[in-house]
UniProtKB/TrEMBL annotation:
Keywords: Membrane, Transmembrane, Transmembrane helix. The lineage of its organism: unclassified sequences, metagenomes, ecological metagenomes. Pfam families: MFS_1. This is Major facilitator superfamily (MFS) profile domain-containing protein. GO terms for molecular function: transmembrane transporter activity. Coiled coil: none annotated. It comes from marine metagenome. The chain crosses the membrane at residues 16-34, 54-74, 81-101, 107-129, 141-166, 172-193, 223-246.
Amino acid sequence: MRQYEVKSTVWSNPRLWAVSLGETLAWAGLFYLFPASLIRWKLHFDWSISELSGALMIALIVSGITGIGSGKLIDKGLGRALMSGGVVLGGVCLLFIPMVSSLEEFYILWAVVGIAMGACLYDPCFAILTRHYSSEAKEPIVMVTLFAGFSITFSFILSALISSVFNWETSFYVFGVLLCFLAAPLFWIGIPVDTKIKPLAARIFSESKSLVSFFRELIMKPIFWGLSILFTTFALNHIMLISQILPLFENKGVSSTSAVL
């Protein structure tokens, strides 16, 4: 694979602008739109907050499992198709969520959204950037993270605005269209074609060492469990704070629109 020369500043790289904007939309639509819509779902479906929150838990579990396959696809040079296809899959699911009539259907759709998360959020994105920019990937990753940090503000404000003018269903249609017709092309443009035949990471899965034996050795290492517990704790803390902040405001008598602002 042809290595890309990192310029003196990442801000002049149009590919990174495309990836950064695409990642911002992906996070806004696939992750933060859930907590932004929680109160509206409670009123519309008459399901409890705990029942609704179960869908996000399912999505995150599926996302973690999907990440294993995403890594293998990236190693095979399919990162561009992975992220573009993943965000389209997520966008299509958002278009169907307003049509659900049961909690089971709701869970199934968010499980599929979890597949999309595992295909196009931070983990695969950073893996692709590291693969292309090698030791100089720090600045591109910082740029993408900086942009995507605004996704929570974008998601909460846009969904609140659309819901107040129309309804929450319309907000999902808007985000679904944004993911399918804006985020996906941005990923396709921003992620170059990968022509590397045998990357270093792929040696782990060579014929002499099966996937089963790799995981057997991995789970025997204490550092694996330590890092797993650490990152899981951080993720749960973030998820609980973000997903429950609007219900907490509601209990204090603050409207969802005022809470977002």
